[in-house]
Amino acid sequence: MWIDDVPEGAVDATTGSPLHAQLSALLRAGIGDGSLPPGSQLPTEAEIQEKFGISRSVVRQTMAGLASDGLILRGRGRGSVVAPHLEHHRQVQRMPGLSAQISTVSGPVRTEVLTIAPGADARAAAALGTTRLLSLRRRRSADGEAIAIIHTWLPLSLAESLTAEELTDASLHALLAERFGVPVSAGRRQIRAVAASGQLAEELSVPIGSPLLLLEGTSLDDGGAPVEYFSTWHRADRVVFDVDVTAAEPQPNAALAGRVEELARELQALSSQLTRGAR
């Protein structure tokens, strides 16, 4: 059992750190590293009390915090179990956004508009070639919890008439194509690992400093003109990036290469015969 392998001094009142915080960190580490896999039964409150010599109130405070964060499921009479680990997969090399990709495999993704207004951003202005910008910040949720925050910058000349109502539970790319005849067909993406700031932590309902996957870049229309600059912060415990890979260069087929050379010689010989015959 997991608790049997944990040193008794792992929760220590003499360190000055709150006991519930120490116990929470211990259980979170077990869940995070797979020692407590999804669906596994957690030790009872009594077992935890006896193991670490702490009060029931400390144990209950810890369990309430883990349940609030969606890490465990509590049930009367059956104890607590580690919650199922929900993962949403996104192929970062594909143009369709998060809502289009996830909705095909795990139900619809909800989109909430947090802010939409004219704004200024130096990097977006450089990428889009204009300082007249529309700032759009949205929150994407799946299975009842926030999984991503998207901040998009658009040329004001293109998107000034967009409203929060039409962007709610909708795809921005689909709207650009349908309303303005601007299909998003190409772009460049970058991925970084970052820590959640205070604002992002609040918007995603995660602790400050939680790991996030940042996908950012510029999207182009079918004529190669930039139409959006965006940054999307994904919860690293909920979203997985999939990348399809192929060999950089196709491996040469020796037999085929030899046959091509043979055909080239035959064609050259035939051409010579035709030339002599024409004379």
From TrEMBL:
Domain HTH gntR-type stretches: 17-85
Pfam family, one: UTRA
GO molecular function ontology, one term from the record: DNA-binding transcription factor activity
Record keywords, A-Z: DNA-binding, Transcription, Transcription regulation
Top-level taxon of origin: Bacteria
SMART domains: HTH_GNTR, UTRA
BP term (GO), one: negative regulation of DNA-templated transcription
Name this protein carries in UniProt: GntR family transcriptional regulator
The organism of origin for this protein: Homoserinimonas aerilata
